[in-house]
UniProtKB/TrEMBL annotation:
Ranges where the Exonuclease VII large subunit C-terminal domain occurs: 150-306
Source superkingdom: Bacteria
Lineage of the species this protein comes from: Bacteria, Pseudomonadati, Pseudomonadota, Gammaproteobacteria, Pseudomonadales
Residue ranges that the Swiss-Prot or TrEMBL entry lists as coiled coil: 263-297
Protein name: Exonuclease VII large subunit C-terminal domain-containing protein
Pfam families noted in UniProt: Exonuc_VII_L
Keyword entries, A-Z: Coiled coil
Listed InterPro entries: Exonuc_VII_L, Exonuc_VII_lsu_C
Amino acid sequence: MTEVLERELKGWAAKGILVRIQGVISNLEAQRQMAEAKNYPKIYNIELNADGPVTLLGARAVFEGCSDGELVEVIGYPIINIFRGAVTVQVEALGIKNAESEEQQAQRRTLNANLAALSSLKPARNAFPLLPMVSVDLIHSAASSAQVDADFFNGLGGLIERCSVNRVPVRITSAQEIAAAIRESEADILVIIRGGGPESDFAVFNDAEVLSAMAEKTSYRVTGIGHSGNTTLLDLVADYSAPVPAEAGAHIRDQLALLVGLVSRYEKTIKARETQIEELSVDMELIQDKAEKEIERLHSSLQSVTKSQPARQPQPASESKLPWVVACVLAVIVILQFFL
């Protein structure tokens, strides 16, 4: 089978059968650089995402002026290749043109500029505040029909009592208002939420000014923008990105519950240590009482021995050591009193 395929189909090209394919081009720049470095006349393995993946090749001149991410229309003919018994079909491009409308081209240029701005920001991750009460600035739509703030509060649940929430209504389609509200926030937690809508409404959350303002904040940043299918560049800057506004509130609730549990365990540990210290203090008092009684007994023994000894008579070796024993006991008492 492999021999038949290689003999009959390898390098087969139907140059009389032209096809027109429209899709988003990718992997072009990397393959172009490889072709230039190795001085290939053609560029290979270019990917085109149409209804399914299509592999392109073509002369380097054909792809001049094209870049990754563009919606293009390609005219070419199919080529069949055989490699280790596997059949692959590619399209050799004879011509290529941009298929985007002026509006689409402008949107893509804006998105690329915002991506470049995001790459230059390199925001750090901020930790959830370890506080018994937290202040929250909630940036949300000022539209009277917007009910997503209610979803957020439902997500907070009973732990809302540990939050001081400041509502910040803005025009949710204005990048300038959103960026200004972000910069003015001084709360421990900054939350940005909005409901669903057309994809064009979410472009504001890809804006370079909004991304820059968010990246500068040292507070804990949470986003709950749109529905689970909506993703924005602002979600990449946030410390936590929730799929929906209610989940943003639930995340803060869960973090507060975890903090309450940690504080409770810490308080129990402190109480147990205090109990141990009290017990040790009682034991030390008992030891001190015993030491004082022992000193009194030794003093009495010393006085009785001194009275019973004749004047200038040498003391036995065992009795001559008694003052040293008393001195040692006194030293122990002094040390115990110092630590108590």
